[in-house]
Write a structure and sequence with these properties.
Length: 85
């Protein structure tokens, strides 16, 4: 069974959200339908990238790593979401 780590961008406020799931298409649909409590206020969401993992544990570990402040800032820079002063 495959598991995924994914990065979404809010089209409303340009925030980044990192998550993991077994069914990436269904999960993104849930985010955009407002069924995910943490993200419903910032929909719609756009998938920026995803990674495939061989186990749920691998996906969760990668999600936790990407959610660190430093990694989120790297993702924002990668996608041009950080203000350039």
């Amino acid at each position: 069974m495959k598991y995924y780590t994914y990065v979404l961008k809010s089209l409303k406020n340009k925030n980044i959200y990192v998550g993991s799931t077994q069914n990436i298409e269904k999960r993104i649909d849930l985010h955009n339908a407002g069924k995910v409590k943490l993200t419903k206020a910032y929909k719609p969401w756009e998938l920026l990238e995803h990674e495939v993992h061989n186990s749920k544990n691998e996906a969760i570990m990668r999600e936790r790593f990407l959610r660190t402040h430093q990694q989120k800032e790297i993702l924002k820079k990668k996608y041009g979401l950080v203000a350039k002063w």
